[in-house]
């Protein structure tokens, strides 16, 4: 019997090893390990495997799967599952299947594929996935030494405006046998570029992703088999400063963390065709120089490049490096070595300038037409020594010159010195700018827009969402949000890309990360960020406002550190990632207990630091409101938010298997807080909380703290404030706006949400767009308030706007009971005021689409539900006769349905549907 099963398995594998068209147009696609496409060098011994089912027919449900894994592609294709054969598993799960085969070894390869059975009776597969294991044991790095140059060079400076030249390192090696495979394992801090035989390895930029280098260091892995040859080869690297050699070195040491001079550790692991192996490591046989063309690289201030100092051929064999220094052994950074499980940044897009104009002082202002993040590529001809200066800014003053006050002390300037050898093309290597406008001076001829190309740089993650509606203002806001979000992905989510800050503030993403997940595949980015937060936690449980803690801001408030919990909840809800909750639960609980023990007084949370940050002020010239009627009590905010987080912790405890022990603790603490909260802040005569700001009433209502019989009365006060007092405009800051749009819709006023979303007068998102914004501002009045607080590329004020776009307007929502979009809840607010919406989102199960259009008499709605999922769909009619499904009357369509109040509720299997309601 066993022999027969193996024979059948071999036949199946043989059949599916070729990408033949599957029957019924159904395929298994997007095989992924840990949600990464073919990752190199992971450090997880039991990685999670996932796949999607792509189908061109309706009602496709997985009934079983089989995972086959082998150590070589040859073994897999020949049916030899020498690592793991799961056998047939009766299950509809296609996400996060834990590898359960043989123990995976250091540097080992895994090739795998999935066989899937569906209700259509097919056995399907497509493609083969691959991942490799990194260096799992710290001991394997022991004989690999960290090398560098721990000194300044002529032209360098250690100051508030530090300058430090790049380090160039090289080593020639001799590989005496035929090469079967080769991989480089590299930690290059703060940033690196890797070369082999004159060729840059990989398309990554600004690598690796930043961490607190005293806690953990990420190494990157590259398969370099095709770049090496038998005989002489050359390994070369360039090291830039990044976050390691801190830009403001020795400036405010009580606030800003510094780590030291750039350094690296590298292993080249070579396997020969005869089965022998070799490891080339960093040691004192490497040569180093700081006399290369990158004479300064500073994230805040820019990059200076002197092309006359180029080291021609430095990264090829037989280069004369006799004047180079011997690389020094240097102290290791201190953090634990980890494989980088997130993608590096890369150049994702290009932007052509829209105009260039000469100023009265003879310089030129280049307009990119879009506030973007990255750098400029320059194309120029001139004489040796000609120096081009490019200064970057987000906006212009009235006289057409750059507006730079909001950059604070960031100099944001690149310099390029020509070598004078025909056409020269250059772009920086180790910096980025946030900008729309560039002042160009020193250009040897009259420049045109064709001399420049903008390079858009952010993490190499997929854009997953689209949105378009009948409202032009909402469409522009969506576009602005898209550009702002991707510009602020820099190996971690940062607050802004242009001024002397660029920090991973937790409070900016508390709810924002959730909205972003509809637009971008941000799962691994935020899973990494949770690790950063955990690593920044103090021994007694405190969590900082910025993580990694490049700034030492341990403010012990609730709303910023609480992001640790809300982002984990987002990853579970949107991606079905339960592992992050299991991994971080104990640290989250530690913080919850820490806050209770230190700041809970009479069952209320007394510590708040930021309030409802950036409430729209009463005057366009103010940053913060001075009118007390606009500000919300900090104790109310902290207590309500802490209560909200306790509800999430109850859910986490159940998921983590800690429910019996911890849920009673969270429940009792919640009830005490709720009782004290209502006793102190609720006014039973007016049915308002505290001073009746929208945020004061909104938080307890959104969090379920308001007694059920009083909810409608509290909501009436919110409506009165929004609709009458503030004339249909935003009056909330960072905290209140996280729950504003959804709560208005939830309690029956989607039209009021729409009014807020479509406004173009102050204060509103549309006001930003109307006044020329192409990203999202830090302030509602970002064009008029104090210049030093005016980042024009922030995302913190988006609140729950994007969630509302998708869940409430498009009707694309993951059922909380079935995370990861296993079941959709599709319930658009058709009566909000829009006439059509077209939206899509690439979920972990596949592409979801929702496109509806209405007029006075009819509603037409086209939806796409991914294979192996279902959807609960709400239509605004209780009449069976008024509804058709794919041009068939509802009662003849075979679709399950029921009436719920004034809605018809359909339960649809996967597929493509056109729904019509008369």
UniProtKB/TrEMBL annotation:
<feature type="domain" description="Alpha-L-rhamnosidase six-hairpin glycosidase">
    <location>
        <begin position="463"/>
        <end position="809"/>
    </location>
</feature>
<feature type="signal peptide">
    <location>
        <begin position="1"/>
        <end position="22"/>
    </location>
</feature>
<feature type="domain" description="Bacterial alpha-L-rhamnosidase N-terminal">
    <location>
        <begin position="177"/>
        <end position="348"/>
    </location>
</feature>
<dbReference type="InterPro" id="IPR013737">
    <property type="entry name" value="Bac_rhamnosid_N"/>
</dbReference>
<dbReference type="GO" id="GO:0005975">
    <property type="term" value="P:carbohydrate metabolic process"/>
</dbReference>
<feature type="domain" description="Alpha-L-rhamnosidase concanavalin-like">
    <location>
        <begin position="357"/>
        <end position="458"/>
    </location>
</feature>
<dbReference type="Pfam" id="PF08531">
    <property type="entry name" value="Bac_rhamnosid_N"/>
</dbReference>
<protein>
    <recommendedName>
        <fullName>alpha-L-rhamnosidase</fullName>
        <ecNumber>3.2.1.40</ecNumber>
    </recommendedName>
</protein>
<dbReference type="InterPro" id="IPR008902">
    <property type="entry name" value="Rhamnosid_concanavalin"/>
</dbReference>
<feature type="domain" description="Alpha-L-rhamnosidase C-terminal">
    <location>
        <begin position="811"/>
        <end position="885"/>
    </location>
</feature>
<dbReference type="Pfam" id="PF17389">
    <property type="entry name" value="Bac_rhamnosid6H"/>
</dbReference>
<dbReference type="InterPro" id="IPR035396">
    <property type="entry name" value="Bac_rhamnosid6H"/>
</dbReference>
<dbReference type="InterPro" id="IPR035398">
    <property type="entry name" value="Bac_rhamnosid_C"/>
</dbReference>
<dbReference type="Pfam" id="PF25788">
    <property type="entry name" value="Ig_Rha78A_N"/>
</dbReference>
<dbReference type="InterPro" id="IPR012341">
    <property type="entry name" value="6hp_glycosidase-like_sf"/>
</dbReference>
<keyword id="KW-0378">Hydrolase</keyword>
<dbReference type="Pfam" id="PF05592">
    <property type="entry name" value="Bac_rhamnosid"/>
</dbReference>
<dbReference type="InterPro" id="IPR013783">
    <property type="entry name" value="Ig-like_fold"/>
</dbReference>
<dbReference type="InterPro" id="IPR008928">
    <property type="entry name" value="6-hairpin_glycosidase_sf"/>
</dbReference>
<keyword id="KW-0732">Signal</keyword>
<dbReference type="GO" id="GO:0030596">
    <property type="term" value="F:alpha-L-rhamnosidase activity"/>
</dbReference>
<dbReference type="Pfam" id="PF17390">
    <property type="entry name" value="Bac_rhamnosid_C"/>
</dbReference>
<dbReference type="InterPro" id="IPR016007">
    <property type="entry name" value="Alpha_rhamnosid"/>
</dbReference>
């Amino acid at each position: 019997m066993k022999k027969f099963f193996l024979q059948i398995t071999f036949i199946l594998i043989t059949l599916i090893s070729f990408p033949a068209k599957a029957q019924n147009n159904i395929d298994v696609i997007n095989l992924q390990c840990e949600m990464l496409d073919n990752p190199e060098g992971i450090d997880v011994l039991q990685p999670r495997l996932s796949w999607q089912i792509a189908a061109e027919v309706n009602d496709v449900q997985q009934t079983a799967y089989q995972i086959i894994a082998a150590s070589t592609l040859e073994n897999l294709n020949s049916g030899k599952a020498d690592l793991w054969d799961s056998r047939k598993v009766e299950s509809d799960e296609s996400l996060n299947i834990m590898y359960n085969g043989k123990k995976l070894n250091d540097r080992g390869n895994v090739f795998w594929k999935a066989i899937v059975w569906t209700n259509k009776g097919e056995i399907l597969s497509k493609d083969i996935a691959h991942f490799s294991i990194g260096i799992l044991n710290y001991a394997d790095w022991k004989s690999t030494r960290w090398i560098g140059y721990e000194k300044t060079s002529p032209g360098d400076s250690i100051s508030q405006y530090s300058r430090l030249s790049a380090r160039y390192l090289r080593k020639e090696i001799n590989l005496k046998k035929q090469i079967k495979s080769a991989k480089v394992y590299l930690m290059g801090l703060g940033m690196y570029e890797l070369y082999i035989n004159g060729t840059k390895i990989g398309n990554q930029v600004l690598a690796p992703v930043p961490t607190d280098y005293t806690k953990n260091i990420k190494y990157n892995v590259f398969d370099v088999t095709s770049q090496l040859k038998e005989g002489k080869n050359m390994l070369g690297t360039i090291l830039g400063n990044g976050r390691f050699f801190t830009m403001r070195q020795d400036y405010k040491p009580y606030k800003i963390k510094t780590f030291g001079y750039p350094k690296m550790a590298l292993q080249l692991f070579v396997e020969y065709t005869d089965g022998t192996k070799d490891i080339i490591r960093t040691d004192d046989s490497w040569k180093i120089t700081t006399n290369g063309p990158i004479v300064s690289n500073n994230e805040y201030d820019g990059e200076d490049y002197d092309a006359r100092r180029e080291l021609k051929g430095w990264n090829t064999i037989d280069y004369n490096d006799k004047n180079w220094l011997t690389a020094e052994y240097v102290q290791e950074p201190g953090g634990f070595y980890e494989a980088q499980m997130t993608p590096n940044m890369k150049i994702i897009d290009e932007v052509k300038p829209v105009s260039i104009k000469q100023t009265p002082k003879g310089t030129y202002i280049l307009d990119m037409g879009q506030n973007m993040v990255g750098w400029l590529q320059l194309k120029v001809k001139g004489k040796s020594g000609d120096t081009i200066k490019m200064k970057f800014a987000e906006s212009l003053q009235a006289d057409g010159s750059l507006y730079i006050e909001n950059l604070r002390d960031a100099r944001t300037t690149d310099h390029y010195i020509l070598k004078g050898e025909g056409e020269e093309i250059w772009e920086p290597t180790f910096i980025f700018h946030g900008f729309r406008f560039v002042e160009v001076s020193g250009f040897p001829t009259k420049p045109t827009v064709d001399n420049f190309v903008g390079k858009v740089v952010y993490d190499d993650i997929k854009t997953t969402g689209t949105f378009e509606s009948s409202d032009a203002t909402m469409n522009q806001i969506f576009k602005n949000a898209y550009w702002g979000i991707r510009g602020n992905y820099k190996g971690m989510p940062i607050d802004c890309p242009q001024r002397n800050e660029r920090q991973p503030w937790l409070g900016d993403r508390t709810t924002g990360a959730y909205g972003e997940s509809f637009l971008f595949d941000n799962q691994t980015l935020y899973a990494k960020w949770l690790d950063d937060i955990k690593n920044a936690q103090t021994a007694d449980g405190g969590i900082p406002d910025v993580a990694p803690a490049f700034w030492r801001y341990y403010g012990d408030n609730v709303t910023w550190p609480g992001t640790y919990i809300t982002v984990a909840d987002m990853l579970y809800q949107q991606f079905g990632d339960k592992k992050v909750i299991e991994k971080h639960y104990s640290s989250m609980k530690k913080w919850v207990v820490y806050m209770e023990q230190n700041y809970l007084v009479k069952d209320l949370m007394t510590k708040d630091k930021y309030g409802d940050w950036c409430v729209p002020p009463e005057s366009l010239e103010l940053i913060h409101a001075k009118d007390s009627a606009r500000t919300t009590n900090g104790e109310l905010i902290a207590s309500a938010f802490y209560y909200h987080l306790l509800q999430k912790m109850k859910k986490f405890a159940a998921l983590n298997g800690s429910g019996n022990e911890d849920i009673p603790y969270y429940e009792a603490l919640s009830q005490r807080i709720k009782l004290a909260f209502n006793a102190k802040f609720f006014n039973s005569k007016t049915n308002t909380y505290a001073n009746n700001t929208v945020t004061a009433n909104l938080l307890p209502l959104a969090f379920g703290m308001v007694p059920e019989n009083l909810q409608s009365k509290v909501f009436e006060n919110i409506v009165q404030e929004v609709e009458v007092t503030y004339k249909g405009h935003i009056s909330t800051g960072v905290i209140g706006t996280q729950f504003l749009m959804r709560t208005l819709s939830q309690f029956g006023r989607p039209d009021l949400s729409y009014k807020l979303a479509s406004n173009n007068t102050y204060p509103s998102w549309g006001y930003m767009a109307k006044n020329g914004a192409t990203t999202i501002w830090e302030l509602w009045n970002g064009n008029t308030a104090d210049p030093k607080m005016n980042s024009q590329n922030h995302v913190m004020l988006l609140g729950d706007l994007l969630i509302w776009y998708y869940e409430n307007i498009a009707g694309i929502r993951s059922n909380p009971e079935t995370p990861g979009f296993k079941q959709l809840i599709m319930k658009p607010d058709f009566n909000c005021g829009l006439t059509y919406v077209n939206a899509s989102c690439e979920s972990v199960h596949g592409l979801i689409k929702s496109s509806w259009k209405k007029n006075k008499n009819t509603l037409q709605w086209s939806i796409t539900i991914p294979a192996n999922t279902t959807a609960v769909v709400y239509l605004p009619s209780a009449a069976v006769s008024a509804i058709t499904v794919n041009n068939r009357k509802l009662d003849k369509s075979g679709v399950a349905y029921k009436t719920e109040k004034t809605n018809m509720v359909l339960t649809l299997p996967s597929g493509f549907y056109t729904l019509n309601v008369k």
